[in-house]
Task: inverse folding
């Protein structure tokens, strides 16, 4: 209540005049939506209206995703080669065999031409002890991943509900209320994602080896797609309901099937948006490099929440507020609102 009173005082005090911060941040913290402007039908057209209203907040949330998961910066730095040893070597699979042919004395115009192709050298980066230390620091992301996702999911949910937002206080409030589940599931989430990506890459390079490897590759693609969609629902449920991790996973699996149309639309939207950002990168590199920093993560999270939360509300929240047929004393609530 004190925060909202402070907001009213700030609004009355600064009713006149131009505010540069408001223009770029999407409005000051706590500003809600007028009743006649509230969106109740979460269709395709209204997505763009709601996205435009909250564009500034989405940019800020994108920065929170990046800064909150700061250990990823250590990983990028280790992979950059700045703390590794440079080595020139050929990466072609036939280079060693062809080099043996040249040593045996079979030097002619044909082998000389092939040597220009097979013997072409590229820079390889050999890891050092410093590289391994920095990579170990990058592993700290398993502790930050869940916290950041929970805090941003709470704010994203409130953006979809069109409620007043107090960015940093809401972010840390959600983490404080859900820190146990956020920590545990955040670790599991990182491990699941890493394992699924590893499976897809492993079976991709083994396509054609056997029928079993082909089946495993396509099965891995299906599982990674299914889990990706389930994540639309897991974090919003974590900040809304008092459920165990197992029940959240079970409900998320059900929602992934029940909300198939909304889910597939959101996935297609993310793919199109990422391709557009990649196109910008190809056209003008400096502007393209800004898209991950300012837009990609926040926009994709907004698409996921826009697809997921209306379905959660329809199935898990709205029935709770309908009058039960049985006696009130025998009625047990199905969830406890964490917000």
Result:
């Amino acid at each position: 209540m004190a925060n909202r009173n402070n907001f009213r005082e700030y609004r009355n005090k600064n009713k006149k005049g131009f505010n540069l911060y408001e223009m770029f941040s999407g409005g000051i913290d706590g500003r809600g939506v007028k009743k006649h402007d509230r969106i109740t039908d979460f269709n395709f057209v209204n997505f763009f209206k709601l996205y435009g209203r909250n564009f500034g907040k989405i940019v800020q949330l994108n920065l929170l995703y990046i800064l909150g998961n700061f250990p990823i910066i250590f990983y990028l730095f280790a992979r950059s080669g700045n703390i590794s040893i440079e080595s020139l070597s050929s990466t072609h699979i036939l280079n060693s065999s062809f080099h043996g042919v040249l040593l045996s004395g079979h030097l002619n115009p044909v082998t000389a031409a092939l040597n220009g192709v097979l013997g072409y050298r590229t820079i390889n980066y050999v890891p050092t002890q410093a590289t391994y230390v920095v990579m170990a620091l990058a592993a700290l992301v398993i502790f930050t991943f869940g916290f950041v996702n929970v805090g941003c999911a709470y704010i994203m949910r409130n953006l979809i509900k069109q409620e007043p937002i107090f960015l940093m206080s809401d972010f840390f409030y959600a983490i404080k209320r859900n820190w146990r589940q956020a920590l545990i599931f955040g670790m599991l989430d990182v491990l699941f994602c890493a394992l699924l990506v590893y499976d897809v890459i492993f079976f991709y390079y083994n396509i054609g080896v056997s029928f079993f490897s082909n089946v495993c590759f396509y099965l891995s693609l299906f599982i990674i797609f299914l889990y990706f969609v389930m994540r639309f629902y897991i974090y919003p449920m974590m900040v809304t309901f008092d459920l165990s991790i197992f029940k959240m996973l079970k409900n998320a699996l059900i929602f992934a099937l029940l909300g198939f149309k909304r889910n597939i639309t959101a996935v297609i939207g993310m793919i199109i948006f990422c391709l557009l950002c990649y196109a910008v990168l190809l056209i003008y590199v400096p502007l393209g490099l800004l898209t991950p920093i300012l837009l990609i993560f926040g926009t994709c999270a907004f698409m996921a929440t826009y697809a997921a939360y209306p379905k959660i509300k329809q199935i898990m929240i709205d029935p709770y507020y309908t009058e039960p047929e049985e006696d009130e004393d025998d009625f047990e609530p199905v969830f406890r609102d964490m917000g």
